[in-house]
Amino acid sequence: MDKSLKSSAINYGLYLGLILSSFTIIGYAVYLDLFTQWWFGIGQMLLVIVFGIISAIKARKLLGGFISFKEAFSAFFITIAIGTLIPALIGFIIFNVVDPEAAIILQEKIINSQIAMMSNFNAPQEAIDQAMEQMQAEDSFFSLGNTVKTNAYQLVAYSVIGLIVALATKRKDPHAA
């Protein structure tokens, strides 16, 4: 992978990580309920995808308008990997080192939010009770294991999107042999 390509993807990843980390910090400091809002998670997900797409397009421009599938995917993946790892670490530090009590409060809020959503969708009470037991039996949502697992699942999901982006972004140089 071209050095300038890697540098560009890393920079976009750092910008993304900074933005998402600021959302985490602001959510923690100002309005903890923000983490229970469905639109907040969707907004962050869209932001990650947009940054990945921008990174792949920028990489193509850096290569003179032509990019291989591998290079486009690498630009996308490096950006989202860095961009999602930084806020995951920030969140882990906030909710495990700085203020573990906030993690307990937020976990209760998330559970209550999930139960309310299930009720709104007319889920049977038995299913709601089972989901509640399962969520309460889990370690803290913010434990190291859950943080790593969540980040890994996100990277897999974003990678599928990255494959589609790389397919749409790649351009073969017609003058190359």
Order of helices and strands: HHHHHH
State mean pLDDT (0 to 100 scale).
89
- Report the count of strand segments: 0
Residue runs with pLDDT of under 50 for 5 or more positions: none
Instruction: Quickly count the domains.
Output: 1
Percent of residues in helices comes to over 70%
Report on this model:
The structure is a single chain. By secondary structure, this protein is an all-alpha fold. It has one domain (3-169). The chain contains 6 helices and no strands. The protein has helices at residues 3-30, 38-62, 69-98, 100-120, 125-137, 144-169. Helix 2 (38-62) crosses helix 6 (144-169). The longest helix is centred in the middle third of the chain and has 30 residues, at 69-98. It is elongated. The two termini are 19 Å apart. The mean pLDDT is 89.
